[in-house]
Design a protein that fits this description.
Layout: H1 3-26, E1 46-53, E2 57-65, E3 68-73, H2 83-92, E4 98-103, H3 109-114, E5 122-128, E6 133-141, E7 147-152, E8 158-162, H4 163-174, H5 187-195
Antiparallel strand pairs: 1-2, 1-5, 2-3, 4-8, 5-6, 6-7, 7-8
Length: 196
């Protein structure tokens, strides 16, 4: 085989490889399976949570006590909340993933009522350290009961949110993060401690 023939073959091979590379780079990337969120914030930036159901509500806020952050109930006497449970609520409220979009753009009031937004079953509000306030409305459940219709207060877009998120918000309102009292010592243990 001659040197010229080998050189031509190498040039052709290089051109084919270059063409294949260019084609591969220009190919659209497959869609990502990463979840999409109704809204998303860092949970540690949330300093107040307000969840209003039809007949009950929960209002907790984070306050600085000395050099530490403490969760307190924001209504009544500002009693301390259980830190671990309040932290879980903070995480839940950082942002729910949505299944799909039902409707985008301006929507008529009667259509909003059809999805349950005339009187939302849940109104959830978070306040961030920087003062931003974000409010979400949850309407009815879908006919199959697997999702809630949900929308951000500042948008007309209606999303499907897994019913678990709505169930969880209802659960925390009905079981607020009240600190568990320390068990009181039994009279026998107290008598033994004083006699020694």
């Amino acid at each position: 085989m001659s040197f010229k023939f080998t050189a031509v073959l190498l040039v052709l091979l290089a051109m084919l490889a270059g063409g294949a590379y260019v084609l591969q780079k220009s190919k659209p990337k497959p869609p990502s399976n990463a979840p999409q969120y109704l809204y998303k914030y860092q949970y540690e930036d949330i300093v107040r949570i307000d969840i209003d159901l039809t007949e009950k509500s929960l209002h907790i806020k984070q306050v600085k006590v000395g050099d530490q952050e403490q969760w307190q109930f924001a209504d009544g006497d500002n009693a301390n909340a259980d830190a671990a449970n309040a932290g879980n609520i903070q995480l839940i409220m950082s942002g729910p993933a949505y299944g799909r979009i039902i409707s985008e753009g301006p929507i008529a009031a009667d259509k909003l009522n059809e999805y349950g937004f005339g009187k939302p079953s849940i109104t959830a509000t978070i306040t961030l350290k920087n003062g931003l306030v974000h409010k979400v409305f949850m309407g009815d459940k879908t006919p199959d009961g697997k999702f809630h219709y949900a929308k951000n207060a500042d948008s007309d877009t209606i999303y499907l949110i897994d019913k678990v998120w709505g169930d969880e918000l209802s659960r925390v309102v009905n079981n607020p993060p009240v600190p568990t009292p320390s068990p009181e010592p039994s009279p026998t243990a107290t008598a033994t401690a004083t006699s020694s």
